[in-house]
Amino acid sequence: MRTTKLTLSADKDLLREAKKFAKEEGTSLSSMFSRFLGATLTGRRDKDQPGPVTRRASGLVKLPSNKTDRELLEEALSGRSGR
Fold it and tell me: Cα dihedral sign for 24, 30, 35, 41?
């Protein structure tokens, strides 16, 4: 991966803690920052998409069409069966 130098500003105490954390993790601030941006941007792109568990579970259950989501949730939380 090709990198570009970047200059950032941060609170002095925050920077000291970040450097300490990076050292404990055996990495650099640059690497931590790159991973943070990558994870943040990936999460932002994917936030409108359901997660992998939701995608796998999709279509497994047929819910009654005559009840609202709230009614179904209330029944589930109270232990009642709405059938």
Answer: positive
> Which of these, 82, 62, 66, 83, lies nearest to 74 by C-alpha position?
82
What percent of the chain has a predicted confidence (pLDDT) above 70? 88
Q: For the range 17-23, what are the long-range contacts, defined as Cβ-Cβ under 8 Å and sequence gap of 24 or more? A: none
Q: Which amino acid is located at 12 in the chain?
A: K
Task: Give the separation between CA 9 and CA 25, rounded to whole angstroms.
Answer: 22
Q: Give per-residue pLDDT as tens, 29-64.
A: 999 999 999 888 876 665 667 777 777 777 777 778
Provide CB contacts within 8 A for 76, sequence distance 6+.
none
Q: Tokens 């002095």 correspond to what residue?
A: 12
